[in-house]
Design brief:
This protein is α+β, with helices and mostly antiparallel strands and 163 residues long. The protein contains three helices and nine strands; from the N terminus they run βββαβββαβββα. Strands 1, 2, 3, 4, 5, 6 and 7 form a seven-stranded antiparallel sheet that branches. β8 and β9 form a beta hairpin.
Amino acid sequence: MDRESKLFFRELYPYYAFRKSSKPYIAVLGIGGNIGDVPRRFNHLFYYFTKSPFVDIVETAPIYKNPPFGYINQDYFYNSIMIIKTQLKPKALLRYILHTEKRFRRKRSFKDAPRTLDIDMIFYENIVMQSRDLTLPHPHWHKRDSVLIPLKYTKSRVWVKKY
């Protein structure tokens, strides 16, 4: 963590659900953004997911503020991790994630562009796959502080199984 990177502990980040979910599959989502009030948007995302019939939130990590990579002429990013349970298979979950990003006004202008909300599927169960639309686990997750640092603060450790 560099000098300007920070870890934030908020009411919903971290969060751990004590109620068990009946949904069969577990996935780890990376969430991020750097346009507007991103921590507030993360709260809205949390409540949006709690009302969703498709996912149950198991756990969230603290919010990590870190510099951008790739295109660096932009504001710092806020990132966190959400561990969810779902009945959706990986590609259906990806479609749901993309729909959710659109609801939160995500625009895709160019690679590594500033964004209101980015949701990446980091892991889905122990599935390893590569298709045109989806690669699991997410490529380069193990090289990104924006994933590694929040992951260190999760209790579930479901992602450790294979990786």
